[in-house]
Amino acid sequence: MPDSGPTWTPWRVPAAMPWPAALLLLVLASGAEAFRICAFNAQRLTLTKVTREPVMDTLVRILARCDIMVLQEVVDSSGNAIPLLLRELNRYDDSGPYSSLSSPLLGRSTYMEKYVYIYRSHRTQVLESYVYSDQDDLFVREPFVARFTLPSKVLPSLALVPLHTTPKAVEKELNALYDVFLDASQRWQSEDVILLGDFNADCGSLTKKRLSELVLRTQDGFHWAIADGEDTTVRASTHCTYDRIVLHGGHCQGLLRAAYAFDFPRSFQLSEEQALNISDHYPVEVELNRAAPGGQPLSLVALLLPPLLLPLLLPQLGPTA
């Protein structure tokens, strides 16, 4: 998988294409459409930051790739940064509408952060959410757990557990994340859970030996979709896999199509200096199929529409040789 991941461009019907052919292509293409879940450390996201036009433009282009995005390091205390970002995102193209779900400010000191979900509300809805009850005070920023609907008969809902660890306690927090997984799984009676975020799970924050000893590595059933060694950092001088997405559950893992870090500077032709105005992290993303490979037939519409359109399409195609 290339560093930049596949770029997303809305498909439009060519002007000269006959409408029956266009409709047929749209029906067939819709069956292959993936559902993209992303996590992005937006590096001290404030109202001042999003009001800078180049920053806003790039953030909107990143967000428009994702059906669900979990933003981290949202430190805006005014409460105005996310509504402004949503307003511009909903004006950007026809991929929305988008909505948001924010945690309260979380932290132990004057420095506080929010987790913010931004999602396409015509493709998914929030069913439930809660801040994990961290009775032993193991997390600096407790996970803000949410359960979303999915456009899939195989997996109609999915729990997301985001975490931005503190670099000083990566191992402790990642081991405690297993308990958050158990809590969400038991609460919603489902083993299909995605853990995601800036885990700081590499380089100086966590050695390879310590990484291999994590509960989330030694317990069966967890698939680390963002592989060790994949660079999730913007700076050319660093090569660290800080940001991760971990999948649990047979249905969830069975729908996995792709996972990668999105190299937005390369895709958007930004210099390193320009990119660092956005973040020093790449977003990480997974794509889920709407049906298990080979496991779900085409919809009734997809089966019936081609024969109905064929008589309309043949005259426009002209005589055959």
TrEMBL record:
PROSITE patterns: DNASE_I_1. Disulfide bonds join C203-C240. GO terms for biological process: DNA catabolic process. Residues 1-34 form the signal peptide. It comes from the Eukaryota. One of its GO terms (molecular function) is DNA binding. InterPro entries: Deoxyribonuclease-1_AS, DNase_I, Endo/exonu/phosph_ase_sf, Endo/exonuclease/phosphatase. Keywords: Disulfide bond, Endonuclease, Endoplasmic reticulum, Glycoprotein, Hydrolase, Nuclease, Signal. Belongs to the DNase I family. This is Deoxyribonuclease-1-like 1. It comes from Trichechus manatus latirostris.
